[in-house]
Amino acid sequence: MMTYEEWFMKQGNLHAEVMKKLEDKTTDEVIEYFEFDNMVKNEPDFCPLYKDNKKCHDMEDLNCYLCACPNFRFKMDGFEKQDGKTLFSVCNIKSVDGAQYIGDDYIHQNCSGCTVPHSAKYIKKNFNRNWFDVMKNVRS
Ligand code: SF4
To answer: How far is the CA of 117 from the centre of ligand 1 (A)?
Structure first.
């Protein structure tokens, strides 16, 4: 299984590869390019779910520009213990739609019910062509 750190680097590099093709595009055009339907067609390697035409979140206008989420925080060694379990990731804005995966000795943030970073409006507000800059606080 991939670690947070491996996933983070891989996703940032994939994002940068796509952005190389969009250097002459406007912000709106870039955001439009990252719409799920277009990404499935033109960037099959960007997400493992694309090959099955599957969305990570059940929303009509799913946009993949901010995958992951700038509000996600992870720490490879864990932040702290909660009820004897190690807390590895949290939501920095405590989204009401966030949840937790709780295992025998671990807790991970569960974003499957949250659509915060996937709307074009949110992406435009937080727009930055450099994914590693937008995500600069994700690694703790
Ligand atoms: S719960 Fe929502 S806002 Fe919080 S880190 Fe997950 S996707 Fe981002």
So the answer is: 7
Tokens of 3: 């670690």
Binding-site residues, ligand 1, Cβ < 6 A:
69, 71-72, 91, 93, 95, 98, 109, 111, 114, 116-117
What is the chain's pLDDT, residue by residue, as a tens digit (140 residues)? 789 999 999 999 999 999 999 999 999 999 999 999 999 999 999 999 999 999 999 899 999 999 989 999 999 999 989 889 999 999 999 999 999 999 999 999 999 999 999 999 999 999 999 999 999 999 98
- pTM: predicted TM-score of the whole model, two decimal places: 0.93
**95 CA to centre of ligand 1 in angstroms:** 6
In three-state form (DSSP H/G/I as H, E/B as E, the rest C), the secondary structure along 84-127 is CEEECEEECCCCCCCEEEECCCEEEEECCCCCHHHCHHHHHHCC
Rounded distance from Cα 24 to ligand 1 centre (Å): 30
Tokens of 130: 């450099």
